[in-house]
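Can anyone check this?
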Amino acid sequence: MNLHVVAVIYCSLGRFEEAIPVLERAITVPDSSRGSDHALAAFSRYMQLGDTYSMLGQLDRSISCYESGLKIQMEALGGIDPRVADTCRYLAEAHVQAMQFDEAEKLCNKTPPSCSAYLLWLCPIGMKD
């Protein structure tokens, strides 16, 4: 059975601790050098691992996974793809949950201008012209 599917089953059963090593292994399977489909598979698994850590209250690990996923996604899609903006928003929200408001604001300020509107609702004060 696919590792990603096994991890989804564990998570759906609330067995998050058991899902973590499966997801960590699943991240290593896609080969990003084989194209964007493989890269986006790794991105998806990093995001799921981040969500799993978040469910366990491990926000720092969660944020680290989201940052890794964002890096892969940006490399695969480019910085101006709207899906990247969605991931930036997701990461900024995680920083807010962790009470890391400065980090959330920095992320909003780094977002490419074409994606900034997606983040405006999250941190309107931090947006630069």
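Reply from J.R.: I decoded it. The two ends are 49 Å apart (CA to CA).
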